[in-house]
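Design job #97: recover the sequence.
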């Protein structure tokens, strides 16, 4: 429960990545912030660090609309490698899309904990991390 948290932001928007990173850096207990630009880069990162639990994220904030590999495509591939991943990773789908089709599609994927509409407020981020710690998921 007292361990530090690794957070991964998978999003092709530089400004969003920057603001998320700056916000997360202010939180006590956030140890490492991994910022990746698309699902393919994120999948490569996961595969490269399968046996290095301390390098893998505890929480992923995953955008839907990205070039090369979008959030849903990443999830399809992540589900295939999940049995080889050495730790439980909590994934939040984060998008500016309020399209019910996107929301329903995300909610049907068991590995996605929740769907969050951008922008994420600082209080939302803090609540997410606090609740995961309290529930023993971090």
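Job complete. Output follows.
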């Amino acid at each position: 429960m007292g361990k530090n948290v690794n957070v991964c932001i998978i999003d092709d928007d530089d400004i969003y990545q920057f603001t998320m990173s700056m916000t997360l850096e202010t939180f006590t207990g956030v140890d490492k912030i991994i910022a990746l630009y698309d699902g393919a880069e994120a999948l490569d990162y996961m595969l490269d660090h399968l046996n290095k639990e301390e390098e893998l994220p505890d929480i992923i904030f995953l955008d839907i609309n990205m070039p090369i590999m979008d959030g849903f495509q990443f999830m399809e591939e992540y589900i295939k490698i999940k049995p080889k991943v050495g730790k439980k990773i909590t994934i939040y789908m984060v998008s500016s899309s309020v399209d019910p089709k996107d929301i329903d599609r995300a909610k049907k994927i068991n590995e996605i904990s929740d769907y969050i509409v951008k922008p994420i407020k600082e209080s939302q981020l803090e609540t997410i991390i606090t609740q995961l710690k309290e529930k023993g998921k971090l």
